[in-house]
Each structure stands twice: as structure tokens, then as C-alpha cells.
Fold:
Amino acid sequence: MKTVAVIFGGRSTEHDVSIVTALASIIKPLELTKQYKVEAIYIAKNGAWYWDEKLKDINLFSSGQIQDFLHKTQPTSVQFDGGMTLVKASGIAGRKTSRKIDVVFPAMHGTYGEDGSLMGLLRMAGVPFVGCDMDASVLAMDKVLAKQVAESSNIPVAKYECIYRDAFARKPADILRIVEKTLTYPLFVKPAHLGSSIGITRVTNVQELQNAIEVACHYDSKVIVEEEVANLIEVTLPILGNDQLKPALLEKPLTKPEDFFDFESKYMHGGKGGKKSGGKGTKGSQGYSELPAQLDAELYKKAEQTGLAVYRELGCNGIARIDMLIDNKTNIVYFNEVNPLPGGLYEHNWRAAGVSSVDLVQTLVRLAEERFQQQQQENTVFSTNYLQQF
Ligand SMILES: Nc1ncnc2c1ncn2[C@@H]1O[C@H](COP(=O)(O)OP(=O)(O)O)[C@@H](O)[C@H]1O
Ligand SMILES: [Mg+2]
Structure:
């Protein structure tokens, strides 16, 4: 039986969301397949790795007992031995327990996980892993780079400017002038690398713009300022696959205008006992949504095609969710951002599209192994006479 290690937690603002994704949407269905031995690896907020069966229990985290657990438990070592092996003290004096990992299933949102860092480590270790590879993850987690790649493939994006913290600190007035000259209010100011709407502000004048850039610079050394998409319909599309792509359903998040971009409304209401209900609304990991999005057939197709094009152009693999902003008057579909690891894998959407949670995780592990085998076939050995001259 193959061993799949699910890695979650991590040094990210989305640490807590990652725990729920890992335990509920990945570990549980993986165990239900009865085809894998599943190991839970939790990365604490300080970056230490822990490996234990107890980490599969959500109560450990929700009750706060995790602090006590971390206090009493030795972090796990990871051995890179032509693969990856977990090693920990077994509790019996001097003895160690170890386990070789066949496939890694990263369940880390945000920095040091979804941003490509973990993927780089796993590539070096030579272990197959689920989801986007390092390069696509790096692009996806940088709102500017992702837009640049999409733009170069003629995929529409909202008009934007990129600002660096150092430059803004040196010459704020010059930068404000450039932004005001090239872009038209209302504008959105966002840290380039963060998710979950942290540090994002909508602004309508230069004073607000300056404040918002300062706030965003507090979180990130790179900031994007972009024009608002008017007559907005927001849609998102989860996609599965390496070469052959399978889109799930186009989904329209239904959040109130006044809280449409705060962390609370995204994760707290939807995740636990949200109050709104009715209509075609579905409770998902990002609050309530319309699933499938009620768009006319042509616009639906166009948004789906845009999502698939972004997935391909950014070089996504395994799974990703593409977010788009539609101007309901001009019918232009703008690419907004990519999530290489959608919260809860967006399993509610996959289920509606006919893919069960069990099928989803199983397919993802298979795609990880397929990509790994393809990469193994790439020739990385090159013989030369170079050393003979020394
Ligand atoms: N250019 C824009 N036009 C209109 N609304 C926007 C624009 N950019 C962001 N928003 C709104 O702000 C929300 C958060 O921005 P987003 O780029 O998705 O950042 P995050 O990484 O936090 O999800 C979006 O879901 C959307 O509702
Ligand atoms: Mg978003």
C-alpha cells in the first residue's frame, strides 16, 4: 500500500484554513479509498514539522489542545534519501520510527506552501506531489506575475500598475502621480502575494490611494493597483488535470457588497453555520454561492474558456481554481487570480459536477504520479569531458 503524506498548517496567514482543508477534504476521503496509508504532517506556526496520528483529529486543533501537544512532542525530522522519509522518536528510549513517503499531498494555503516553496523542496527530494508544480505556484501566488503571463496570451486583465515598497517609500508623490495618470478610479490596492483579502482596499481618491498603498506595503514589498471592473459578476472555476483538463462548474460567490472582501465573510460564515440560505445558493468554503453560475450560455462558455486558457498558460497541473471578474455590460471576462490550492479543494463544486471527494483525491494522487513519471523521463544527465582537464 502506498503512503501519502498530507502536509498542512505552515507559516502562513491561512494556517487555520489549511488545517480544515487537510483534515476534512483530503485526509478523510483519502482514508475512505482504503488504497493508501495516510500520514498527517502538521507544520506549526513556528515552522517545525510534526508527524502523528493524533494530528488527524480536528478536535485537537479546535479545542486548543494542540499547544499542549506541541509542547510535549518532538518535531519530526525529514530524511532526503533519494526520496523522503519521516523519522521521529518512538517513545521507547532511543528508538526511532520512520516511514518512507510515496506521494505528498500539499494542503498548505498561502506563503511557504501554495507559493511554490514546498514544491521546490519536494522536487529536490524527488517525491511526486499533488497539484501545481513550483513554477505555476510561484506565478499564481504573485498577482502581478500571473496577470503579466495572462496578458501576454491576450487574456483580458483589469488595467494595473505594480508598485514596489522601496520605491514608494523613496518617492511617494511620483508614484501616486503615475498611478493617477495611467489608471482611472475606483481602484483596488492589493498586496501582490497575499490571499484572503488581507490588506486590500477599494479607493476613490488620491488620499485613500496613498493610505491604501501604505497599508498594502505593510504586508508585502510588492503591491498591485488596478482598475475596478464595473458591473461586476464574480465567477470562479475549479479545474482538474495535467494535459487533459476537466473543468468543474462555474460558480458565482454570493456575498454582500459591504463585506465582499473581508476574511470573516469568506471563511467564518460559509465554513461554520452561515445564516443565509435559499435559492440556488450552496454553502461552500467561501460562503454562499450560485452553483452553477446563472449566466447566459455564451457568457458561461466564454468564462469557462478563459479559465481553461489561464490554467494552460500559467502551466497549472493537478488542480487549481481560476477567479474571473465579468463586466456584465461589455461581457468582457477578466482574469483576476489563480488559487493553486482552493480551500477545501472546492469539493462542493466538484460534487455538483459529478466528482465525489473520494474520486477527487484519488484522481489528484494519480495525476501527481503521472507528472512525476514524465519528469523522470526527462534527461538530466549530460556527459562531458569537462572534468578531465583538471
Ligand atoms: N479589479 C477589481 N474590480 C472589482 N472588484 C475587485 C477587483 N479586484 C478585486 N475585487 C474584489 O475584491 C475581492 C478580493 O480581491 P482578490 O484579487 O480576489 O484578492 P484575494 O487574493 O484576497 O482573494 C475580489 O473577490 C473582488 O470581489
Ligand atoms: Mg480572490
Residues 317 and 344 are 17 Å apart (CA to CA). The chain has 13 helices and 18 strands. Residues 2-129 form a domain with the Rossmann fold fold (CATH 3.40.50.20). Residues 256-265, 268-280 have pLDDT under 50 and may be disordered.
